[in-house]
Specification:
By secondary structure, this protein is of the alpha+beta class. Helices cover about 20% and strands about 40% of the residues. It is built from one helix and ten strands, in the order H-E-E-E-E-E-E-E-E-E-E. It has one helix spanning about 1-40, and strands at about 40-45, 50-55, 60-70, 75-85, 100-105, 110, 115, 120-130, 140-150, 155-165. The strands form two sheets. A five-stranded antiparallel β-sheet has the order 1-3-8-5-6, with no helix packed on it. It has a five-stranded mixed β-sheet with strand order 2-10-9-4-7, with no helix packed on it. Mean pLDDT is about 85; it is low at about 30-35.
Amino acid sequence: MKTTIILKKKDTNLSSFVSRFIILIIVFNTVIVLGQSNSCIAELKVEKDRNTRSTPADGTYYAMLISNKGNSAQVFSLSSLNITNCSNSDGSSSEKNVNLESVFLDKNRNLIKKISVKSGETISFFVHILVPSNTPFDKWCCTQITANSISCENYKVDTILHTLFINPNDN
């Protein structure tokens, strides 16, 4: 009889251990998920909110700011895309917008493709908009600038630059 009571007592201890282990796993996963959500917070914008510029044939520079508002350092991959579904700053149709090229430069004007930002830090960099030869004058381009987090899967921030290619002969 003592044997059956001991088995039940061991059985109860085993059930208690399994229950505690499952609760521990749930708490641990919740902490990880909450921690990750706070680490992926960033902001990408043009300095002084100057998203619209005109450019001559030799191009223009946009001063950009990327801020890491999360709780861990982030590395962002930078990319650009000419988009047609945007609103031109003068209200004209984006149907006849042109494609311009862009490159990313650090504050010393060195070519970059990625940028590292510590927690709580804001880094400045440049987007250099280049005008391909034979681009028609007085046309707009909307360029979406995106910073994709390498650390946080599927997290990105973006902004749109509005650039008007002007005729340098017009005064």
